[in-house]
Each structure stands twice: as C-alpha cells, then as structure tokens.
C-alpha cells in the first residue's frame, strides 16, 4: 500500500483597511480539523483496493490517496498613512488545515498480522498529514513576519501591491516545501514501514 498524499491550498486573500494612526500588531491564527473515510477488508490487498477506491482526491486530479491535508490561507492587513508615507499597521494571517484520514471499519475478526500492518500504516499516514499541517502553520508565521517587515511606501496603493506580492511569494514557497516533503517521504516509504513494523513486533514481543 504505497503512501501518496497531496495537499490543497488557496491563495492568500488579504482584505485591506486604512488607518490614520495605530500601533502595529501582528497575529497568526491557525486551526485544524479532522475528517475520516471508512474502508473495509480482511486482507492487505482488499485494504489497498479500498484505499484506492475511497481515498480523497487531490485538487485537479482524479487519483485517490490514503490520506490528504486540505489547506486554506487567508489574511487581513491595515495600512497607516502618516507624514506622506504609508506603512503596515495590523497584519493577520490565517491558516486552516483539514486532515483526512482512513478508518478501518471491519477490523473485528481480522488476523493479528493484518492488524499489525494496518496500525503501522495508519500511524504513518497520520504522522505524514500532521507534518503537512505543521509546514502550513510554519509558513503562515513566516508570511506574517515578512509582511510586517515590508518597508514604507509613498502610497498605500504601492504598499498594497507589496503585500500582494509577498503573500504570493509565501504561497509559492509553501508549495515548494510541501512538494519537497512529499518527495523525501516517497523515497523513504519502504524503509520507514519496515522500521515501524519491526518496532511494533518487538514491542508486542516485549509485552508478552
């Protein structure tokens, strides 16, 4: 059951407000939710087919995957016009992640060996998706810092353009980091699964 996950993200949409004078402030709001899809099966092949048939799809693709993380960025910025210059006032970047995970509904009566394999696989899927969400949260913080540090401009229109450009760069960097993570994970999947299985087998043997 190869691990292949995708994520979806939307461009940051900053709403704009002008302020005469107020202290600069910054905020990152991160939220996370979970949803599940049920699969059934009594063999590894059956579980693999169920994941391929019922798993979530990635944006722009009909291929299904064992798990996924949907990511949505947003934000608000206020600009302060003072002394013929425009600067950043308040900055808020939001990021919501929805982690979609498989749930094995017919585990009762399955073999111990299959349960061991499933526990290792499902824990790895969850760890992988949690890391996607963590990358998104880290990038939201980086975007907030970058926008807050933008230099003053002569007009707030120019300031707004800088914010838009910086948010676009932040999204592009986020996508590069997510793609890089997926590439590394795909290369190491077999070794990682063998290590997880060995750890669980040894843990079970040690508990006897």
From TrEMBL:
Keyword Signal: yes
Name the record gives this protein: DUF922 domain-containing protein
Organism classification: Bacteria, Pseudomonadati, Pseudomonadota, Alphaproteobacteria, Hyphomicrobiales
The keyword Signal appears for this protein: yes
Any Pfam family matching the protein: DUF922
Key words of the record: Signal
Residue segments, region Disordered: 49-68
InterPro entries per record: DUF922
Signal sequence region: 1-26
